[in-house]
Each structure stands twice: as C-alpha cells, then as structure tokens.
Design goal:
By secondary structure, the chain is of the alpha+beta class. The protein folds into two domains: about 120 residues, no CATH class; about 40 residues. It is built from three helices and eleven strands. Strands 1, 2, 3, 4, 5 and 7 form a six-stranded antiparallel sheet that branches. It has a three-stranded mixed sheet with strand order 8-6-9, with no helix packed on it. A hairpin with a 2-residue loop joins strand 10 and strand 11. It starts with a strand and ends in a 10-residue tail after the last strand. The relative contact order is 0.10. Keywords: Membrane, Transmembrane, Transmembrane helix. Belongs to the vacuolar ATPase subunit S1 family. GO terms for molecular function: ATPase activator activity. It is a single-pass membrane protein. This is VAS1L protein.
Length: about 200
C-alpha cells in the first residue's frame, strides 16, 4: 500500500509505502496478514525503512491501534531496520492507525483486531487489588470459623439471688444433729452438687 503526499517542503515526492504479506496458519485455520515494513520514499528513492512488529490480523479483518510509532514511549511497533540509513533520524507516529490490505468489501474496513493488550497496567493493578481483598476476606473467614465461643463457660452460672434463696430454703434439710458422747455433730442429708466454670 502506498500513501502519496507529493512535494512537502524540501521533500520531493513523499511516499509512505506499507509492505504487507499473507500467511496461512494451520492452528487458526485461516489466512493472516502482517505488516512487515514501512518505507519512506522522497527525492525518488527509499530514504528510511522500519521493520514492523506485532501488526497482524486475520486476512478477513482489519488491524487497529491507537498509536503505531517508532518511539519507545508508544511501545515502538516500528523499529529502524538499520543503523546505516536515515531511519535513525526519523520519528514516525501514526495516530488512530487502521489498516486492511485484503478482502476489502464496499470500501469499508472489516471488523478490527485491536492492538490493545489484555494485560494493561490498569488491568494488572485491578487484579492485584482483587487478590489482596480476597486474601483479607479469606483470613477474616478463617478467624471467624476458629473463634471459640465463651457461652459454655457461663451456661451453669446463675444469679446470686438464686443461690441465696436456695440457702434459705434448704438450710433445715442440709444438716441433722447427731447424738454421740456429748459432742454435737451434723450429718448432711441432702447433698447438692453444682458446677461453676470460671
């Protein structure tokens, strides 16, 4: 594909040439197209050449990317092919780049395969935060499950009024005097046992 701009300033006959190829991949059972090179032609000769990386899509689709650039801050999908030519002196950036070389119908782009990664920094940060929250929740559930109940320690504990009433009512049945050799001793007739956990 060639984009012809004509004469722009000192650049005579500026042309941007995009070299596309198709290949068949058995794994996907379809043809894919790839952008292999981008060439800048002016003054009737090739002046700069960039190798393209990661610009490919199924042949029936188009390829779309917010930025295709030779700059590192935009992921540098265009890499100078050689240090000897003038490509090192050029900075090329396409904004809202979309290309389709084959199977074009009615002059419109087909469905676009986007270059955006599934694991952008924002998505990775969201996944990390979700993992941290899940760990905190799991720890809290673990602590709740293994929390020991204190109710069993107080199940037999009654109010002081209950013990006082018991003492008054059962005082007569509690002991009976025994008669022997002039000493007074008592025998417990009604023995009650209670459990108190402290």
């Amino acid at each position: 594909l060639s984009l012809k701009f004509g004469d722009i300033g000192n650049l005579k006959g500026l042309v941007i040439r995009l070299l596309l190829t198709t290949s068949y991949y058995q794994l996907s059972v379809q043809n894919w197209f790839s952008l292999h090179r981008l060439q800048l032609l002016y003054n009737h000769s090739v002046q700069a050449t960039f190798n393209a990386t990661g610009i490919h899509a199924p042949a029936s689709y188009s390829f779309h990317c917010e930025r295709v650039s030779s700059l590192q801050r935009y992921d540098a999908l265009l890499v100078p092919s050689s240090a000897n030519d003038l490509s090192q002196l050029w900075e090329v950036t396409f904004i809202d780049f979309q290309i389709q070389g084959f199977n074009i119908q009615e002059g419109h782009f087909a469905y676009a395969k986007d270059c955006a990664s599934f694991f952008s920094p924002a998505i990775l940060m969201g996944l990390v935060m979700s993992l941290i929250l899940l760990l905190v929740l799991a720890y809290a559930l673990h602590m709740l499950i293994h929390l020991k109940s204190l109710d069993r320690h107080y199940e037999c504990k009654a109010s002081p009024a209950y013990f006082a009433q018991m003492k008054d009512n059962d005082m007569g049945d509690e002991k009976e005097p025994l008669r022997n050799s002039g000493n007074e001793s008592y025998e417990l007739r009604n023995q009650q046992f209670g459990k108190i956990y402290i």
